[in-house]
# Entry
Amino acid sequence: MHRSTGKKNRIIIYLIWLFILSTTSGKFAVSHNNYSSVDNKISIKGLSNIENLKISNEISNLLFKNIFFIDKQEIKKIMKKYNVIEEYNVKLIYPSTISIKIKPTKYLARISKDDQLLVGTNGKLIKDKINNEILPYIFGDFNSKDFLTIKKNIDQSKFTFKELKTLFFFKSNRWDILTNNDILIKLPLNNSLDSLNLAYKIISSNDFENIKIIDLRIKDHLIIK
# Structure
């Protein structure tokens, strides 16, 4: 009986020691994890204070670990949500800082259906209730590709965006533009750059007066009214 009781006591003591060791080991692991976590810092510059803070808060939600584990694709997803961004640069400064510099897009035109909806140089639509710039209006349902194509042609032509009052986009993917002098230029489906330069030459010439319409829609045909 005494041997049996002694054996039971040894087993109980052994189990108690196992419990103590496992508890201590667990506490050490938690302490070690806390020690290895880093107080990450996020620096964002380029947009308004409110927008910088919004982006900072979204990125901070990714930082449950130190920045060694940051997925830049996740940051890219966040940045894509902000149409006001033209370009950005992300710099990871180890061990604990993320620095993001943003280049905001410039506003080029307004949407006719919504005076507060602006078109940026990146081709995206941005809601801005404060902006009071005098910008040309765009009529029609266009996409970014359509706009960036005509924007490129205008930039390469002798015209500038500042000389334009209105742009009209048609379902046929064709554009008309109205200058600040109220001259309507009807562009063809293709060769917009050549047509823009021809229109500019006609407007600048002394041979044509009181022009209201320059119709270049038909290839090798010029109609002036």
